[in-house]
Amino acid sequence: MKADVASAAIMAMLADRDPGATICPSEVARKITAEASADDAADWRTMMPIVHAAVDHLLDQENISLSWKGRALKPRSGPYRIARTDAD
Fold it and tell me: Is the pTM above the cut of 0.85?
């Protein structure tokens, strides 16, 4: 699985949320794992490096912003939430 699949999942999940809402990177990993495998036991944690790479790319493109407990993050570090940028 490539980062472009994770990027598409991130943007689709954000599009389904209210403006200002955030998603957790683990939500993205769970979504792409579920879509890639019919095996409910598939470990979404193995997708986290791909999700992080997609987040870094989308952040560089200014398509998303990151925060943790209301504070903006750039670059990605530690726990974080993903949001659409104000431009969206």
Answer: yes
